Amino acid sequence: HFSKANAYLKTAGLKEINWADLPSEDEMPFD
Fold first, then answer.
1. Residue 24 has what pLDDT?
2. Burial of 26 (0-12, 13-18, 19+ CB in 10 A)
3. What's the chain's Rg over C-alpha atoms?
4. In which domain of life is the source organism classified (predicted)?
5. Which of 4, 15, 17, 22 has the most CB atoms at less than 10 Å from its CB?
6. Which residues neighbour 5 within 8 Å (Cβ) at sequence distance 6 or greater?
């Protein structure tokens, strides 16, 4: 899931996520 999320962010032109700042992977809207 992390690699998909970062690939999505790169496509969107955003910075990669700092995973330590997330409450939980399950709360992210990635498939």
1. 65
2. exposed
3. 9
4. Eukaryota
5. 17
6. 17, 28, 30
